[in-house]
Amino acid sequence: MAPPSAPPDDVKARLRQLPKVDRLLGRPEVEALTARLGPRLVKGLVQDLLQRAREEVREQGGEAPAEDALVVATVAAGRQLLNRRARRVINATGVVLHTNLGRAPLSRRAVDAIAATAGGYSSIELDLVTGRRGARGAFMEIALAQLTGAEAALVVNNCAAAVLLVLNELAAGRGVVVSRGEQVEIGGGFRVPEVLARSGAKMIEVGTTNRTRTRDYARAIDEHDDVAVLLRVHRSNFRQVGFVEEPPLEELSALAKERGLLLVHDLGGGALVDPAEVGLMGEPVVQDCVGKGADVVCFSADKLLGGPQGGVVVGRAELVERIRKNPLQRALRLGRLPLVALEATLESYLAGEVDAIPAQAAMRRVPEAVRERVTRWREDLAARGVAAEVVQVGAQIGGGTLAEIALASWALAFDPPDVDGVAQQLRQGEPAVMARIQAGRLLVDGRTVLDDEQGPLLQALTAALRA
Ligand SMILES: *Cc1c(COP(=O)(O)O)cnc(C)c1O
């Protein structure tokens, strides 16, 4: 093969004009970045930029960038990297449980509990009464059992982990009967057939996409002699309408009992108070599923419950104890900080203070209150020279719950010349603000903004939108 042709002399001359890596690293602005990110990372940024500059000179034949321009580009690359850290974001999208924004914001009580324990040692596995080793999460489990009406509870890292663990303990090497209409995919790659396979259980599909009857389950049990579990999965993020049928939970429970099998319900959402109270129909409540005879119910702690990331398993005491002893439980267990936050969130439920939980408060806020709120914002912004219109919109619960159900909501609508540019500026600002663009307008939904975020939000909007 012929060697690559040597670059012509003028290109070589221009490449020689590029500063050396060490020279850029010695510039004060870059040194400030190094003080924050360390020498290796910043050196990597500088090398990447120089490499790109060399390629541009070779391929496009332009001038080498000036040293000052490379310093500016290095600092910008460093800032972009820092912007990739998980940061506080004001959620003005109207999606209450926004998966990309960490689902449920924690309550004041939960945040205080984390602040009070995180920086020190804690009694996480110590019984302060006896001074001996204590059960991790004992209060949390008692509170969950109390609130759901189940005999016992256990919490792991998320609901996906809960389902994996439960099926592994109760059905590994045996059959799990699941409807073809419930083989769902939840965001983030949770697919029921795949998790089921990884649990070591064997999937036995019954029914059709749209209709499955109790006798379909009964036939599957007759045809396979190794069935251990009937699995019901909540179709969290989509809805079936039209010619559809699924057996009531009570019927499946009766069938499971009659055949000596277990009924496991992957519920996802985990509502402890009925969303129907605020006009949101169709989301099952955990207590109901327990009451209707599911032996084990799994749900997320950070969906409708409004707590930290976590996966709750509630059910019959004997089964929960078996699941607790499974070696996977230790690998999937809940972290120390979410545990503290979940206990505090459950205290709010025990005290009947549901509105103290931000996701619940955002869901339950009546449209008129949202309208008053955004109207106040509009007046405030008008006084600062920023024009906006108050418009009615549909907000969403999100997080794979109450699919398709729109909450009536109100938003401020803005019409800047460069709507994408403004949205980007808001995202990268301090604080970061996530708004929504619809039909070319920037919408700032009043439902999902937390009370103490209103001042910073108005400041960010003023900075981004003042002409
Ligand atoms: C959301 C959901 C899951 C996954 O929950 P994570 O807590 O995100 O792991 C599993 N099953 C159902 C039915 C869900 O809705």
Descriptors:
467 residues, alpha/beta, five-stranded mixed sheet, 19 helices, 18 strands, binds pyridoxal-5'-phosphate
Would you kindly provide a written description of the structure presented here, covering whatever features stand out?
With 467 residues, this protein is of the alpha/beta class. 44% of the residues lie in helices and 19% in strands. It is built from 19 helices and 18 strands. The chain has helices at residues 9-17, 21-25, 28-37, 39-60, 67-83, 108-118, 138-148, 159-171, 192-198, 214-223, 249-258, 286-291, 317-325, 327-332, 336-350, 358-364, 367-383, 419-428, 454-465; strands at residues 89-91, 95-97, 126-127, 132-133, 152-156, 175-179, 185-186, 190-191, 202-206, 227-233, 262-268, 296-300, 311-315, 389-398, 401-414, 432-434, 436-438, 441-445. A 7-stranded mixed sheet has the order 5-13-12-11-10-6-9, with helices on both faces. The chain has a 5-stranded mixed sheet with strand order 2-14-15-18-17. The chain is globular. The mean pLDDT is 94.
